[in-house]
Amino acid sequence: MKNKRLSLQLLIGLSVTALFVWCIATAVAWHVVKKEAKDVFNAQQVLFLLSVWQPLICKKMSYLDETCQFSIAVDLKRKNVIMTEMP
């Protein structure tokens, strides 16, 4: 009976330790990835917004044919968007 009880205690102790280690590893991984994921998400939002606004910008600039092309660069560190007209 004591052997079963000791086995159960060891199993519970190992399970709790494994759960604790898993939680710590998950927290560290989330902290490392969180900023990069946020930057990628923000860049995608900016590019989507600019792709939606490009036809309006072209129309405003009186480009009525389909030759209005822009190059869009996003600098996340400086929070800057650069639009240049393509020839």
Name the helicity range: 55-70%
Major sheet attributes: 2 strands, antiparallel
Gyration radius, in Å:
27 Å
**Distinct helical segment count:** 1
Let me know the average pLDDT: 77
Main β-sheet, spatial strand arrangement: 1-2
Spell the H/E element sequence: HEE
Distance between the termini: 85 Å
Structural class: alpha+beta
Poorly predicted ranges (pLDDT <50, ≥5 residues)? none
| Number of extended strands | 2
Strand content: 5-15%
| Global geometry | rod-shaped
Please describe the structure with a list of short key phrases separated by commas or semicolons.
87 residues, alpha+beta
Structural commentary:
With 87 residues, the chain is α+β, with helices and mostly antiparallel strands. It is built from one helix and two strands. A two-stranded antiparallel sheet has the order 1-2.
Please provide a brief summary of the model.
The protein is α+β, with helices and mostly antiparallel strands. Helices cover 68% and strands 14% of the residues.
Topology:
Blueprint: H1 2-60, E1 70-75, E2 80-85
Antiparallel strand pairs: 1-2
